[in-house]
Amino acid sequence: MESTKVKERIFLSSPHMSDEGYEMQYIKEAFDTNWIAPLGENVNGFERELAEKVGSKAAAALSSGTAAIHLALKAAGVGEGDIVFCPTLTFSATANPIIYQNAIPVFIDSDYETWNMSPKALEEAFEKYPEVKAVLVVHLYGLSADMDKIMEICKKHNVAVIEDAAESLGTYYKGKHTGTFGDYGVFSFNGNKIITTSGGGMLVSNNEERIAKARFWATQSRDQARHYQHSELGFNYRMSNVVAGIGRGQLKVLNQRVMKKNYIFEFYKRELGELEGVKFMPSNEWNEPNYWLSSMTLTSKVRPIDIFEALEAENIESRPVWKPMHMQPFFEKYEFVGTDVSEKLFENGVCLPSDTKMTDNDLERVCEIIKGLWLKK
Ligand SMILES: *Cc1c(COP(=O)(O)O)cnc(C)c1O
Is the beta carbon of 167 within 6 A of some atom in ligand 1? Predict the structure, then answer.
């Protein structure tokens, strides 16, 4: 008999704490020593451990990935009226801090080979705006941008590079971790990312002096003095010691999470890859993705909206690929360089549920619903 009970929700990507309870051990330590805030051993430890994991010299634990992007721009010297190249296909959190700094974004198109910043469009942008101050590169859905090509172009123009690796912790490009190619790298531990601290971010760099400066800005720019002395504008952007404890525990299961995300991607590819008009996100031999979200595009009679609706009816979460920034009401007044690649990826893209707690049963359920749409058309 068909159950009338609401089916258990399958999420796109939800928090997944370790089975071993690592996070609670670190939180308990913070409570036992009353290092709830500010800062403390978990913050120092999380910075050390994350820097080591990605192969960067220094890291600053912050309240969000957005805060990390903001301080990276500031550290790179981006200020009023400066131009910053930014991928158009991304989450708005990449672009917003450019505006916080009163700088001007120029949006760059993606290519189909990587879904990330097109080196060709980037070169075109340099021709139009040679005075550009910094380039923001994003590694979407755990895929990596083509960093050799992008770094070569940026070095030629001697411009600062910031990598928004918020979605790509655990992703490597030619064996090197994403977020460590440019001058600054940014990670996020928001609730839906591959590991989470409930909310938080990290700024990494090989420039220890700039990271120390970022920590200073993040704690209200308090000068070395007994009294409260400020010679610079400050921010309240530091991560708390309790939150950092969650991060230290989560870092221990990052490899496990990447393996499960990879398993989910392979499962979908096997089950859905042969459907008419389905193309999965690109694979490149130089890229080891973390497969944060399994994504695909459709050029078939079945449209993305059919999938979103059919899955939602079964209490399963899925969503479109990011809507490009140059199509957003808030950002459309800024320049865009490229063709229609990111628009097409948005129009045809589907992010499938990629929650690491999903069972084979859940994956089969999702695939059956989707395959059913092709039978109907
Ligand atoms: C999540 C995300 C961010 C922002 O990180 P928060 O920690 O939520 O501030 C920035 N850029 C991209 C591409 C993201 O996916």
Answer: yes
SS3 306: helix
- State the pLDDT at residue 1: 47
Here the contacts of 153-159 (C-beta below 8 Å, separation 24 or greater) are 153/119, 153/122, 153/123, 153/126, 154/182, 157/126, 157/130, 157/132, 159/132, 159/133, 159/134, 159/135
Distance (Å, rounded) from C-alpha 22 to C-alpha 61? 19
Helices (H) and strands (E) in the chain, counts: 12, 14
pLDDT tens profile 70-113? 999 999 999 999 999 999 999 999 999 999 999 999 999 999 99
CA 167 to ligand 1: nearest atom: 15
pTM: 0.96
Query: Going from the N-terminus, what domains does the chain have, and what CATH number goes with each?
Result: 22-251 (3.40.640.10), 254-376 (3.90.1150.10)
Mean pLDDT of the chain: 96
Length of the chain in terms of residues written: 377
Q: Tell me, in angstroms, the distance from the centre of ligand 1 to residue 83's CA.
A: 21
| φ, ψ (nearest 5 deg) of residue 4 | -95, -5
pLDDT tens per residue, range 318-361: 999 999 999 999 999 999 999 999 999 999 999 999 999 999 99
> What would you measure as the largest C-alpha separation in the chain, in angstroms?
73
